[in-house]
Design brief:
three-stranded antiparallel beta sheet, Double Stranded RNA Binding Domain, alpha/beta, homodimer, TIM Barrel, about 40% helix
Chain lengths: ~525, ~525
Amino acid sequence: MKSLTFYDTTLRDGAQGEGVSFTVDDKIKIVKKLDDFGIDYIEGGWPGSNPKDEEFFAAIRDLKLKHSKIVAFSSTKRYGIDIKDDLNIKKMIDSGVDTVAIFGKSWDFHVTDVLKISLDENLALIEDTIKYLLENNMQVIFDAEHFFDGFASNPTYALETLKVAYEAGAEVLVLCDTNGGQLPTQLASTIGKVKESLTAPLGIHAHNDSDVAVANSLLAYELGAVQIQGTIGGIGERCGNADLASIIPALKTKYKLELSNLNVNKITSLYYYIMEVANLVPENNHPYVGSSAFTHKAGMHVNALQKNSETYEHVSPQIFGNKRRILVSELSGKSNLKYKLQELGFDLSNFTKEEYRSLATKIKDMEYQGYQFEGAEASLKLLFLREYEDYHSLFGVEDFKIISHNFGKKTDSEAVVKLKVKGESVHIVAEGDGPVNALDNALRKALLSFFPSIDVMKLIDYKVRVLNGKDGTAAKVRVLIESSNTEQSWTTIGVSTNIIQASWQALIDSFEYALYLAKNNGSLSAN
Amino acid sequence: MKSLTFYDTTLRDGAQGEGVSFTVDDKIKIVKKLDDFGIDYIEGGWPGSNPKDEEFFAAIRDLKLKHSKIVAFSSTKRYGIDIKDDLNIKKMIDSGVDTVAIFGKSWDFHVTDVLKISLDENLALIEDTIKYLLENNMQVIFDAEHFFDGFASNPTYALETLKVAYEAGAEVLVLCDTNGGQLPTQLASTIGKVKESLTAPLGIHAHNDSDVAVANSLLAYELGAVQIQGTIGGIGERCGNADLASIIPALKTKYKLELSNLNVNKITSLYYYIMEVANLVPENNHPYVGSSAFTHKAGMHVNALQKNSETYEHVSPQIFGNKRRILVSELSGKSNLKYKLQELGFDLSNFTKEEYRSLATKIKDMEYQGYQFEGAEASLKLLFLREYEDYHSLFGVEDFKIISHNFGKKTDSEAVVKLKVKGESVHIVAEGDGPVNALDNALRKALLSFFPSIDVMKLIDYKVRVLNGKDGTAAKVRVLIESSNTEQSWTTIGVSTNIIQASWQALIDSFEYALYLAKNNGSLSAN
């Protein structure tokens, strides 16, 4: 193992993160994505620890992967039993993989106080386990658990565990900062000393408890580590693992590595995919891949950016499949607003100073009420169309009513909606899973007979944000709805103290925008 | 300036973060908190850039602070005008502060391509601005914008900007990684070279675009920087600023600095406070201060933790006002569940193996449906009470109905609730801001006449999380409600595809738990 490899543990260490729980199906989906991205090793789970992981290894056996190797994870054998009787080891061999990661204790304190065996007995566990796995035709990665704490406590013994593992046949020795307590200078010094007394290939497995896991992993690479372990988005127990979505971009652009196996330009979509499957909120401010990572707000910056993007961007967003965004916000000057409107496709050549000012005032006012157009450009576009263009909505809204009725464990919701479409009054009723779904169904039912093209429009995301949670159930809420047709997606917004009113606004905008798009591309049949 | 100082720019650079917008009132609240925490310098804003910042400086003038100094921020004077006519500089002087931060260009490329002036003309801007401010009795902090990129491009010129600023009278020269592109090794090497040719006090201002801002700030400290700039929670434009909520804990516990001005044990509450005012979701996995930072999930770890907390914690949570948590989750074994129930105050001495297993199965099943008891311990406690203890709710729920009626821009909601309390049927109606608030009001109205102690119970937070957003408005939602009485707060949960049903479950649990607490502490008057 000479060239640099990436080892992803999203499915094992990542699954230890608070609020994270993958189904077997989720895990298989993630494996396919990681393989497609080009990760070298994918740690699939600990077959001996729970039935779900066992099921995963059974399910993955028939999957044809392009590049990735699936790895099974386990501890060294249990003390005091024959290794053939060790269920963890047996399940690992039975799992059908050909590469395994074995973690063993490198911290003397853990050996004597947690395992409660002698230091030599622990060395024997490491040696016996690795040799046995090699006899069973496995390739072995050795994770030296708590290596850095161990080295600080007893450097001779910590090094001894590495030597034993290497001599037993492990192909890479992974230095683990299990508690995540290492700071860069200390970590670099320890790795330097290890390199002085060992020529074996080293890996790094860092946790982020000190907020420096990315820096530590990059330093380990500089000091010669040939395997970097981490998770996508840094998910994992406590403060998470080293984040491959920050490490890989740095290696690609700042260390200028070719990384020819990796589709670096897919790392943004990989990040969003993993966050969605893990049911975690993606971090807007995530380096390289976050939606705000190349987003500019201050008027001054935007001006300079338009002159030359290098002035305020350390790397180009395109490399990672991300993009630059300019925000319309209360901090923005005329140049931001102009840039945004042009981006939305409006011709501003006849726009007067007064019109700019009145639009900016209106947006400022709505932002004060809780609107945020940063993520809801379809609503911003409609706002502009309604005020400044020769535009009329294809339907008018008169009134609605919702009745939600609870029977024990279930609540039914029914929506009654009155619209005006093409001069006709439409009075319609529909049921749904909850009040908003009932409104959605009623609007759809009402509009479909007039505009059959509405059929291809789908609501794909619905988000609720409580704006001032401390007011309890009387708080203001912001609703964002993302919709799509066969060609594109768009997001709309509503704000109110009443969640139904906020959802209604976003729904109306969403349907109105769908019809606007259909009209503009000619697919609005004249039914 | 010899000893280390902390400089917070949450109110200026932090406010550039996407989705962040502080009112003047917010800013004053934050100043008070930062002062109480013991931050040395608080950058309040840029008085010349917008009326809100100007208003802030007017409002802050009469505020008595214990320790913090308020700083006004601005650029060097504009080229080609007399400094007395420069509005930015004038407003800065008029702002009433005695310390100012002036940023000037250190990157030759910015001078020639953005300012479009000669390199010498830029040096003159720096010199003239600082001298003029000193004549007006200001202390000046000089922010060398893009210093590291400037040093890479033209080291002689970048150093020259520092020298000019220092000779003009700046008391500290802050090296800014404005684009956040620096990696630790490169940054350390540059600072080393600056130290060789300059004896002036240095500061560090790092951005997190490479995910290493904390590491970079700590390295700068190691290399002699005497001022660290950053924001609480790392909020700020793009990927944010260096995070003082990670830097300060490291300096306190790992560099063993006394930091006697700082109330380090308040940093967790400071973090949550800033996130709340900024209307950002706190990061559970934030190092040191996040709710998951010392949270343990895996059965194995919990076992070892109970033996000795040092085994799996790099530092003690108490130092930062944070605490250890053990999660009940599907990954957990019997030891986790037992620990949690004991923590909740249950006596488990008579609990059988079968009872453990059946409870674990029930929790696993509910988690599969979308429940998460990690954050909703009152609901977990009620679940346990209902199943295993001699416990009966003080009221029974029969039925409810909600009518939401829209009139143009407004939607009214009305809830009709049927309860059974002390043998009596109670049929009551109430209005509210939205359907959930109406239910809350109806429940309160119904229970108050039977249990006057319910009067002190308040709903303090209401959160909605869409579990599978991609199903649009038919998605499942999880509702968390936090409530408090005069002594404590508690959180309850509800899950359903119908947001009203989910909110109802959480509301019922919240009222039931309030009555349970009142009964146990004897405050439940026998009305």
